Automatic annotation (TrEMBL):
InterPro entries: RidA, RidA_CS, RutC-like_sf, YjgF/YER057c/UK114. SUPFAM superfamilies: YjgF-like. It holds the Pfam family Ribonuc_L-PSP. Belongs to the RutC family. One of its GO terms (molecular function) is deaminase activity. This is Uncharacterized protein. GO terms for cellular component: cytosol. PROSITE patterns: UPF0076 (PS01094). Homotrimer. PANTHER family: 2-IMINOBUTANOATE/2-IMINOPROPANOATE DEAMINASE RIDA, 2-IMINOBUTANOATE_2-IMINOPROPANOATE DEAMINASE. It comes from Candidatus Regiella insecticola LSR1.
Length: 167
């Protein structure tokens, strides 16, 4: 029996290396398997998206998967936030794109987004701006979840995070 707090090397290795299986909600034929080693995880940082406002990074490159942090609708050049949901949606998506592109991928490689909105009554307007963004980039629509939240950082109306796949 081991002494409490004395984790064996097998236990430690279990946390250092694990396999991640991601199945896209768009097309279940494609399964991506990424092996995550702590040494392989690469931080993504770009000046084209706003700096993290807390203890997190803009995104992480796991080799075949790119995972962005939630992107607020802050213009990285001016540090301003638009007032309306359409402009905020577009800016959040531009920030997501900047992180994904820094990893060498494009908007077309995004397979899943999660949209956090402050008011679902603005869904139609948000959805129109979201649709136009992907159409302008000639990218397929990714799988998406959309949830209403009580509050978002900096009292913005929207935050969007994404997962992209390196094919």
């Amino acid at each position: 029996m081991r002494a409490p707090g004395n984790a064996g090397s097998t236990s430690l290795n279990r946390f250092r290396k694990r396999s991640i299986i991601y199945r896209s909600g768009i097309n279940m034929k494609h399964t991506v398997k990424a092996t995550l080693n702590t040494e392989e995880k690469r931080t993504i940082k770009t000046e084209r998206a706003p700096e993290a406002i807390g203890a997190y990074i803009q995104g992480v490159d796991l080799g075949s998967l790119i995972i962005t942090s939630g992107q607020l609708p802050i213009d990285a050049k001016t540090n301003t936030i638009a007032d309306d949901i359409a402009a905020q949606t577009r800016q959040s998506l531009e920030n997501v794109a900047a992180v994904v592109e820094k990893a060498g991928l494009s908007v077309a490689d995004i397979v899943k987004t999660t949209v956090f909105v402050k008011d679902l009554n603005e869904f139609v307007t948000m959805n129109t701006a979201y649709r136009l963004f992907f159409e302008e980039h000639q990218a397929p629509f990714p799988a998406r979840s959309c949830v209403e939240v009580a509050r978002l950082p900096k009292d913005v109306k929207i935050e969007i995070e994404a997962i992209a796949v390196r094919r």
